[in-house]
Structures are given as structure tokens and as C-alpha cells.
Amino acid sequence: MLKNFFIVTLRNLWRYKFFSLINIVGLAIGLSASLVIFMIVSYEFSFDQFESDKDRVYRIVLDMNRDGFEGHSAAVPAPLSKVVKDAVLGIEQAIPIFSFPGDTKADVHINRSEDKLVTFKKQEAIVFTNLDYLHLLNYRWIAGDPPTALIQPFQVVLTQSRASEYFPNTPAADIIGNRVTYNDMEVTVMGVVRDLNQASDFRAKEFISLPTIEASSLKGDLMFDVWDDWMSYSALFIKLSPQATPQQVSKELNLLYNKHKKKESYFSKINLSLLPLADMHFDNRYQSADFRIAHKATLYGLIAIASFLLLLGCINYINLTTAQASKRAKEVGIRKSVGGAKNQLIFQFLGETFFITLLATLLSVLISPLLLHAFTAFIPEGLTLSFLGNPEMIIYLIFVTVSVSISAGLYPAFILSGYKPVQVLKNQQLISFGQSRQTLIRKGLTVSQFIIAQFFIISTVLISKQIYFVLHADMGFQKEAVLTFNTPRDTVDIHRTQIKQRLAAMSGVAMVSNGFTSPAMEGGAFSNITYQNGSEEIKPNVQVRWGDEDYFRLYQIRLIAGRQAIQSDSITEIVVNERFTKEIGFQRPEEALGKFIIYNDKQVPIVGIMNDFHTQTMRAEIAPVMFQGRPGNTFHIKLQSEPSDWSKVTASIEKIYKEVYPEDDFNYEFVDDTIKKFYEKEQATAALLRWATGLAIFISCLGLLGLVIYTTNSRTKEVGIRKVLGATVMQIITLLSKDFIQLVLIAFAVAAPIAWWTTHKWLENFAYKTDISWWVFLASGVGMLIIALCVLGIQTIKTALANPTESLRDE
Amino acid sequence: MIKITELQKYYRTEEVETVALNSLSIDVQKGEFVAVMGPSGCGKSTLLNIIGLLDDLDEGSYKFNDIEVAKFNERKRSDLRKHNIGFVFQSFNLIDELTVFENVELPLIYTKVPAAERKKRVEEVLEKVQIMHRRNHFPQQLSGGQQQRVAVARAVVNNPKLILADEPTGNLDSNNGNEVMQLLTELNDQGTTIVMVTHSEHDARYSDRIIRMLDGQVVMTTVG
Ligand SMILES: Nc1ncnc2c1ncn2[C@@H]1O[C@H](COP(=O)(O)OP(=O)(O)OP(=O)(O)O)[C@@H](O)[C@H]1O
Ligand SMILES: [Mg+2]
Predict the structure, then answer these.
(1) What is the mean pLDDT of residues A625-653?
(2) DSSP of A154-194, one letter per residue?
(3) Which residues pair with A787 in a beta bridge?
(4) A512 close to A553: Cβ distance less than 8 angstroms
(5) Which of A283, A629, A636, A676 is least surrounded by CB atoms within 10 angstroms?
(6) Which family does the entry's similarity section mention (chain B) (predicted)?
(7) Is residue A733 a contact partner of residue A437, using CB atoms and an 8 Å limit?
């Protein structure tokens, strides 16, 4: 029986090649999108699933609050790690993780032989921790003695990959006892463990014993005894005992913390809480440099896109199969008359769908590498895309093939198997029983396809419009042709002045300034000041910027009133922006001139007022800014107008930089590029949406083409008669296209408000936004219509031009 | 074998109700060859479809081998059908995607006959209808008479006790028609019961008995 079904399937597939192709391609596109997205999503959800007792592991995190301004930190005060296990009941293990201050990286030196010193610059993934870390992650020991490793200062355990990087061609056992120098701190290798091969946010590859910190200068650098402050290099994980509840433990934690902290903090409220391991990968409030947060909403968005594309493919299948059902009706009638039961037929048609889906799945495996382009921005680092070696992937492929077969095949199977032999076999001609309801369903499905496509078009245009807006809007300062670079933290003033003079004299450089960051930065640098207006204290949350006397001129920031602040290393006077003056209660900005604010317990006068400029991304409101006259670690260089010469200029700048700082790398960035980077996520979303739109349009149009071919084929005789009776080509085209155009218009009417609402919601992320203009809707609708007309045109024009005698002859 | 009493069959369309069969009663004995005749629209095909359990009846009783089948559900009907009844239609009704061999094989597949046995039986019957040499052709590659012979082969491959033929020669010239009638007669001689609808007095003469219908009723029965 199976063989018989299979033969019919194959022959039908071949006989209606074009329709089969539409079905397969449509499904394959949806399937490959879903494949890639499945890999991304399952990878993100696979993080830290392997730890034993992972339900009892928590990261201690910090929440702070001041006047409704909330802050979050994944780092905690360092001394907490020393006392927490003994002081708080219910903690089975405490796992502190510290890293090198600065950029968490260290230069690693290995003395391979007498006179051969090998240096690995800026090695990442080095932590200070204890043995529990290795236990938690179930590290397998290759060499070394677990109980004694990481107990004493200056001990280190390496993963196999690092061990063989540092000591190539050396058996693990012989690596034990060797010396490794981190910056200038020498430690002994106590063990080698196998690298992890599961996805984890615990990414360290070298584990230095915790006591090393206290025995070295790191003690001060890492503020190892400071309760009232914390650096981002200090993380703390705990494993609760089975009886303990997180509520009770976090309560005790806060008691402990409050007991130790001395100073009245800047924040009115600081609260320690426990972040479950399972949430760590997704909670973007607690970001930290040592791992990457995945964004759940983005993942759900990706899933939605995959589902939509799959849905579009299924709709094509349903539409084309039911439209063509009459061609199969005779077969159904015959099969029934010779004894085929209805459920056998359902099974047969479902089997056919399964077969087609299977072909589509195979095709999708082939084309998904192409589709990866669409998702590059969303593919997490560490994810390798492989199909075969991955059992999850195979299971997913089977699952998705079966479920798509059922979603696409069930309805057609019922329609097809429902034909009654008496109706069908009567005289070879189908009596259109129930046809009108089917047609309605088909129309409904086509409308849904175009709703999805239209929705994607409108949202893509609007999102791109917003991105254009944020990138091109006047930010209140000059951002073109300005590049910035940082000098090392410990730069002395004399170097700075030297560099500045040399740069300013360089040809191709228009102007040089030196200060803090450029006017707009991603996060912002906040500070708090107090203003006494006579009756009350006003404490606005302000942004701070500083720079030398050329900063304003370079960025073309205007002084509205007063003068620039004089240069000084301590704050003696400030320039504020208009917003600042409003914030402290002045109608007219210049009224604020000469007023004093209190900053760090010091009275500081306002000597100038500058125009408002964007201090952060367009997501945030323009903040009040206070500007101080003092140099900083960032150089701002305005280049002369010819972009073609810029690379020469940057090369010369680098030369000067290297002369002064031979040890350091020269990294520069153009200010407008920095600003572009503010919106990387939006740009990635837009790129993905562009792909989704393209694919959605493509799949829907394939379906439309299939339907119109079917309809025109079944109406060739009618068209012939009409032409004989005198209809013009245009009339015929209109006749054939009218119904479809109606569907596209209905889809537009439904999609437009949905797209308006969604983009409106999305735009709420921005304080400054583009208009949701009516012309976007008009253009998108017309665009869709034109595309649909082109697709329809392919077939309708052909039919309309056909010689009527041909279609009428075979009567 | 067939005992139908007081059969009523209506067709309802949006505004009109047609009485296709009106208190019709007939008996067909095992081994008989019955021809049904009558003007176009009198209900012959409807009757045949009801006998073949392809269509249901509105009132009356239908006993097939003494079993009341009027109220059978779709599943029981298809069961009964596949083991007992073969159909031959005026317009052949072969599946275009299947070859001659595969078309004939179809009923055996549904009755779960093993593959080897199927091959043997299909070949036997193709031999019998003399179409063996065309076994791998598709229906479109055959003449009308050949197609109908395939259809007959398919109807008999399961050794049904009853063959229902609706104008089997309607689309054939007289030579081809005679061949098909010859075939049916042979089958009848071997014991198969046959009910055949026809417009041709010539073909009707092959039968044992002619039932004449008018407006959904039997008006006369002639024994040949
Ligand atoms: N599906 C249907 N819907 C409505 N009326 C029908 C249907 N099928 C048959 N009829 C009507 O029932 C009556 C009997 O039809 P039937 O097909 O049985 O006639 P017939 O005797 O086989 O005619 P012919 O010799 O032309 O094949 C006719 O009046 C026909 O119009
Ligand atoms: Mg008839």
C-alpha cells in the first residue's frame, strides 16, 4: 500500500512540477529560518544547564536606589566573599570570582628555558577563585592533586587548552610545578583540567588561588577590605544548602552587609539579592564584562519570525493543494469505489505532505548557510552551526518536519478525502460541492499571508526611518570628521601637552582638543549637585563633561551667555547647558549666570551657558550638563575636509602616539561611528526585518503566483468565450486580477493598524523619534500592490493574450 | 443477493427537491445478469450507486446477502464494498498517475493481499481481458476499449460476487462494446452477479432480465 501511495505521490509531484516547486521552496525557506533560529535559541537556553544542584546556585547581586533612580550591579563589595559562608546560615559553598583590574586581562610570561621568555599579551579569562568553582562546573582533572591546589597563595590551575598554549608538547603531568607569571606576579601550576564543552557563562580558563590576592598588591587594587564600595571585578556565587530558602538567606545577607558598611552611602538604599543561575544568562540588569547576556525578547522575536515564515509556507501548501483538489478528486472517487476507506485516504494525503515537507527539509539544510547572513548579528559567539554531529538538531528536524506536515497537510487531507465517489465519478466532472467555503478559506489564508508581508514591510520602513533619524538628526554638536582616541590612564600632563602641540601642527588636522568623552556617550556619566534657590534645595541628576579651551570650538558647541570655564584641575567654575538652567528653576537661561551650585561640598559658580546637545542616545532625554574646564585622557581631533587623506592622517597620529606610548596600542574611532554603534541593536533588528520582509514577500508571492496560475488555467475556456464575444485584453486582465487585488487591499487594511501599533510601541524606547508618517503606509501599501500586480501580470497577461480558438477547440 | 424494498431517494438543492427514486423495489438473485434501462434522468445511475453503497438512501430497506445495509456507516460500507463489489463506469475512471497494472492492483492493495499473490492475480486477469502486453502503459496511452477492459479487469480482480456496470459501453464503438459485453457474460457464466445500466437494447440482450425504469420507478420487468 505504501509503495502505491509513494508512486502516486512521486508522479503527482512530477506532473505538477511547478506547484510542487512552489510548495517545496516556500516551506524550505521557512524551515531553514526556523533551523537557524532553533540553533540560536536552543544554544542560548542551554547555558549552565549542566551544573549539579544548579537550582541551589545563586549569584549575589546588588540593587541600589536614589530618588527613584535605580541602579543594578552584578558585582558586590569584595570582603563579603570572605565572611559570607561563616556569617550567613544556609550557605554550603561560597565561590568568589575576581579578575584583574583594568580590562580583566593580563600579560602572561612563560620561561620556556634559561633565556627564552615567551609572552602572551592581554590574555583573557583569568580569574581568582577557589576549588568550589571547579567542583561546581564538574571540571575533570587531568593532572594535579585537587585537595592541595588553590589553597596557598600563588597557585594556579590551567585548562588543557591554556596549558598546551603555554607549554606545548609537554605531558600534563610535567606541566605541574612550572611557573607562570601574570604581569609581574609569579605563580606555580598546581593542576590541569579538561576544558568545558558545554555552554556556560563561567568562561574562565585559568584559575589562580584566592589567597594570592591578599598576598599581593592586588589586595588594594581590588579593594579587598572595602565594604562601602565595589569594583566590577568582584563577583560572588553561593550554593545554598538544601534546606535553605533564598528569601531567608538574602535577608541575612543584607543584615550582614549593613552591619559592616560604615559610610552613609550616596545611594539611599542598597539591597543585596540572589539571582538564580538559570536567570543569569538573561537578566540584563546584571551585566558584567565576563559574560554575555542574551535578550529573551529578541529570542522570542526570532521565534516569531521563524513561525511566521513557516506559516507562510504552510499556507502556500494548503492553498495550492486545495485549489488543485479537483484534479485529485477523481482519484479519490476511484479509490473509494474500489474499497479505500476515508482514513486510509487521509493517511495517504498526509503522507504526501510529509514527503514534500521532507524534501523541503532537505533543501532547507542546504540553504540555511545562506540564510545565516540574515542572522549574523544574532548569532551568539561560541555557537557553531553543525547539523549532523548534533543530536538535538536531528530531533528538531524530525519534530519540525512532522509538525509542519500536519499543519500543512491536515486540512487538505480532509478536503481531498471528503470527496464522495458519486459526485466525482458521475461524468468525470467535479460538482463544486463546498467549493465556495473552501474558496473563502483560501482567500482568508491568502489575506493572512499578505497581512504578514505587509506588516513586515511597514515596520521595516518605519524602523529604518527611525534609524535614519537618529543617525542624521542634529545632535547639537558637530560629529562629522572628528576622531577620538584615549591615552593611557596614567598619562602625565606634560605628555598630553606635547601630543596636542604636535597633532595641532600636523597637516590634515584642523583642530585638537583634549578632555573627557565626546559630548554624547552611550551610558552617560552622572553626578549629583545641589542648588539652593532660597526656599528649597534642588538636586538634579546631571551629566558631567570636561575638556580644554578648544573643546567647544571643536564640537561647535555655542555659548549662549557668559564665558568658558577657566582651565583647572580642580573644579572652580562650570558652564552649564540650557536644560540645566531650567532644571534649577530659571525661565531664561542667562539668569543662571553667576549662581552657585554645591558640588562635592564646594560652592561652584556658573560662568557660562551653552546650547543643549544630546548627551546620550536618542533613547534618553537631553540631560542637564555641567562642563568643567580641565584636560582629560581623550583626544578629540577635527580633521580637515578631504576624507581621502584621512588614512594618511591617522597613520601619522599613530606614529606620534607610538613614540610617546610605545607599549600601548593605538585605537581610534570616529565620533559619528561611535554614535552609529549606539544603535547597533536597532540596526541588527532592521537588518533582520529586511530579510524577513524579503522572504515573506517572496513566499507569499510564490503562493499568489500558484493560485493565479491555477485560477487562470481553470478559466481559460471562460476567457476564450469572453474574447470571442469581444472583451479586450485589459478587461480580461482586470477580470482575472480583481479578486486578488482585493485580497491585497484587505490585507493592507488589517496590517496597517497592527504595524502602526507595534512600531508605535517600539518607538516608545526613544525620547526623540521620527513621525509615523502617513506616506510610509501609503508607500508600503502601493509597493505591495505593485509587487502583487507584477506577479499576477506574469500569468494574467499570458492568458489574456492567448488565442481563444485554442482554448475552445478541445470541446 | 440484493433485496431492495420501498426505496426513496431525494436530491435536495437550494430550492427544489427532486425525487430520484420513488418507492422502488427490486430483487436480484445470486448469479443473475440484470440490465437496467430507461430514459435519461430516470434514476438508473442513482439506483446503481445505492446498490454499490456509494450513495445512501433516504427511506426503505436494502438487504445485501440478507444483511440490512441501509444504515451502514462509511467504514462498514467501504468494507463490504471492497470485498464484494466491483464497479465499471461509462467513463472508465482509471487513475491517470497509475499504470494499467497498478490500476488493476489497487483493489487488492485495499484488501491487503500480499504482493506476490497480487502480481499473480493481476496478471491473470490482465491475461483474461487481453491487455497483458500493455501492463506498463498509462491510461492515456490506451484506446477507449482498452481502457474499459482495464476497468473491467480492475472490477473483477478481487473476485467480487457482484459487478455493477454503469453504461460500460457508452463511450465505445460497437466492436469494442461487444468485446466488453463478451467479457461480462463470461464472468456471469462463472457465477458473478451483474447489474448493468445501459441504453442499448443490443447490450441488454446479453442479460437474463431487463428492468425498465421511468421517473424513479420500475415500470416493467422482462425476462430474456
Ligand atoms: N447530485 C445530484 N443533485 C441533484 N439532483 C441529482 C443529482 N444526481 C442526480 N440527480 C437527479 O436525479 C435524477 C436521477 O439521476 P440519474 O443520474 O440517476 O439518472 P440516469 O437515469 O442515470 O440518467 P442518464 O441515463 O442520463 O445517466 C435526475 O433527475 C437527476 O437530475
Ligand atoms: Mg446515468
Answers:
(1) 87
(2) SEEEEEHHHHHHHSTT--HHHHTT-EEEETTEEEEEEEEEP
(3) none
(4) no
(5) A676
(6) Belongs to the ABC transporter superfamily. Macrolide exporter (TC 3.A.1.122) family.
(7) no
pLDDT tens per residue across span A440-495 = 888 999 999 999 999 999 999 999 999 999 999 999 999 989 999 988 876 677 88
CATH number for B156: 3.40.50.300
Quote the CA–CA distance of A642 and A628 in Å, as a whole number: 32
**Grid coordinates belonging to B166:** 454503469
Please tell me the number of the ligand nearest to residue B213's CA.
Answer: 1
Identify the residue whose C-alpha is closest to ligand 1 atom 2. Answer: B11
- Rounded CA-CA distance A696/A307 in Å is 11
Average pLDDT over residues A693-702: 92
Residue in this structure with the C-alpha cell 577635527, named with its chain if needed: A638
ipTM confidence score: 0.77
Residues A624 and A611: beta-carbon distance below 8 Å:
no
Given a cut of 80, whether residue A524 has pLDDT beyond it is no
Residue A208 CB neighbour total at 10 angstroms: 29
> pLDDT digits over A85-127, tens only?
999 999 999 999 999 987 888 999 998 877 788 999 889 999 9
Q: Which residues contact A297 (CB under 8 A, 6 or more apart)?
A: none
Helix/strand/coil percentages in chain B, nearest 5: 35, 30, 35
Dist. CA A221–CA A210, nearest whole Å: 14
In A538-599, where does DSSP find H-type helix? Answer: 551-555, 578-583
Ligand 2 midpoint to CA A324 (Å): 26
- The strand pairing partners of A575, in sequence order, are A608, A627
Q: Looking at the 3D structure of chain B, how many domains does it have? A: 1
Nearest CA to ligand 1 atom 16: B43
User: Could you tell me if A331 lies within 8 Å of chain B, comparing CB atoms?
Assistant: yes
Any residues with CB less than 8 A from the CB of A245 and at least 6 apart, and which? A90
A801 — pLDDT class (breaks 50, 70, 90): confident
Which strands make up the sheet holding B2-12, listed edge to edge? B17-28, B2-12, B59-64, B67-68
What is the band of A767 on the pLDDT scale with cuts at 50, 70, 90?
very high
* Residue A201: count of CB within 10 angstroms of its CB: 16
Dump the DSSP string for B171-199.
Answer: TS-HHHHHHHHHHHHHHHHTT-EEEEE-S
φ, ψ for residue B118, nearest 5 deg: -60, -45
Q: Do B78 and A426 touch (CB under 8 A)?
A: no
- A677-694 pLDDT tens trace: 889 888 888 888 898 999
Cell of A654: 599613530
Give CB contacts under 8 A, 24+ apart, made by A296-305: A298/A378, A299/A40, A299/A41, A299/A44, A301/A685, A302/A37, A302/A40, A302/A41, A302/A375, A302/A378, A302/A688, A303/A37, A303/A41, A305/A33, A305/A37, A305/A688, A305/A692
Q: How far, in Å, is the centroid of ligand 1 from the Cα of A284?
A: 73
A396's grid cell: 528538531
Question: How much is the pLDDT for A542?
Answer: 87
| Predicted local confidence at residue A785, as pLDDT | 93
The mean pLDDT of A796-809, rounded to a whole number, is: 72
**Ion ligand 2: residues, Cβ under 5 Å:** B 45
* Ligand 1 neighbourhood includes B43 CB (under 6 angstroms): yes
Cα distance between residue A693 and residue A787, in whole Å:
13
Domain that holds residue B209: 2-223
Rounded-to-integer distance, Cα A169 and Cα A190, Å: 18
Q: What was the pLDDT predicted at A263?
A: 65
Cα of B144 vs centre of ligand 2, distance in Å, is 19
- Average pLDDT over chain A, rounded to whole? 87
Mean pLDDT of B40-61: 89
pLDDT of res. A260: 86
> Mind telling me how many Å the CA of A336 is from chain B's nearest CA?
7
pLDDT at site B8: 92
Residue that has been written with the C-alpha cell 506536515 in this structure:
A405
